[in-house]
Amino acid sequence: MIYPFSTIRQQLATLYLRSGFERSLRHWSDRSHSENILTNIYDSQVWKTFKDTSYHDSPNFFQPEVADSHLGLMLNADWFQPYEGQFTVPV
Hints:
Order of helices and strands: HHHH
Distance between the termini: 28 Å
Shape: extended
Structural class: mainly alpha
Oligomer: single chain
């Protein structure tokens, strides 16, 4: 079996070449929302308080003025196993 692979660098380059991509990165800062209603990750405390560095007084990582360069990457695991057998993660 062959599984296609693309590096993060290749994926980011492809995304930035899309029309309007940088504008869409600022969507969270311009959207309307209701207080006390969580409708997206943008409403979470993690998003609002995540720091740029581990220093206590560092600025928040997610700020409207740097929304097109401060990207948060996440790993999505759906437990798909393209092979037979068990998979264990070393700890």
